[in-house]
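To fix ideas, we quote verbatim one protein's residues and fold tokens.
>
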Amino acid sequence: MKILGSSRCIIIICLWVFFLSHFHSSAIVAVSQEEQYPWPKPISTVWGDAVSIPLSPTFKIVSANHRYLQLSVSRYNRIIHSEHWFPIFSSYSYITINSSTVSSLEELAVSVRDLQADLQHGVDESYTLTVPAGGVANLSAQTPWGAMRGLETFSQLVRRYNATSIYPLVFQRQVKIIDYPLYPHRGLVLDTARNFYPLRDILRTIRAMSYNKLNVFHWHITDSQSFPLELNSEPALAINGSYSPDMRYSSKDVKRIVKFGRNHGVRVIPEIDTPAHSGSWADAYPDIVTCVGTFWSDPSTSWSNRMASEPGAGQLNPLNPNTYKVVQNVIDDVASLFPDKFYHGGSDEVVPGCWKTDSNIQKFVADGGSLDQLLEKFISTTHPYITAHNKTAIYWEDVLLDDTVKVRPQFLPRETTILQTWNNGPNNTKLITAAGYRVIVSSADFYYLDCGHGGWVFIILTAAMEVGSATIAAMIGR
């Protein structure tokens, strides 16, 4: 089974207004010559009579008692009665109809077949929305999470009377919508290690995701730049590895993010990137991190001799037994904080030069060992730490496809491993699926929102060449 990602979040809240009709100031209803769709486009939309339906001033949404669905119902009741949006542009033509002939929509009744379904990968998110010419509309779903998607669709089709009058609110027109996601994994990745984001911004991001029916918040929490997550068993990592005491996430913060995600039908998957991208761990445990304090890439030498693929060097040492004690504590704590059945272990961009600075690794290689074997040792030891919590491990594609350091497939059990692509367009996706693995697609060629105008690493490397690596190293505190 393929698990595919989506980049639709970048056009959030912008497309709704262009799909819906404009009103004449003298009309309470309008007819469009073009079909109109909510965002994203449903699987099936069958429009009824081309007559907009006024909402009763006492319109309400009612549903079965479910903790998260009730919160969602309250939220959409508030959105529908307070948003008051109106299209700013339209190419549609109109006719008017006497308002006395139109019945009001009094209620949206929400029914759910399986109220016990958990928010995990593969949960049924289908729904059917039926809106008549007045009276009671119906939203039926297999699970509360599908009902949330239907509520979002319904809310997108409610708007104000016209450009100058808020009331009455109107529903677009009679319709029957049958919808379900094409992809069970529709995610957004946010990196809070290189740039710290306050809690309020993370919650705002999750809320925006729900407006687009995205369902996975992939939280890239740690990297070489900082370790902002407070952990009970390893408090030194955040104390020493975060940018400042104000730039950390407590367990209370994490619980709030997870709960907020569930309130909006969004899963939260943590990523703790190892064994590369781990320079921030050295501030607490310098003995388990190699190439600490080195500049990431000396412009006077070849690219193959770099310490890291981007600023911030440091990789966990697979030959140090203390490495595994710390990693296991981290995984245990993180697994307990996040209820999702997926755990992202990173494992991208392992750079030979960094490991080769360590004397024990130098001896290991001189005695006939390889860097591939080092990575295999790390993965084979830490993968069971993840699966022990009944979780599936996600790794970046590099762990299997990297040109210089990778593992053999036998070290990545297919039943407990998912690989995430980011290089080489669709080609790596084809290679991984051909090898029998499930795949999350997040290709930098298509889906990276920060790579539209050239690579930022190139800019920094050029600066280093111009002013000297020693100056750049001093600027970044290394």
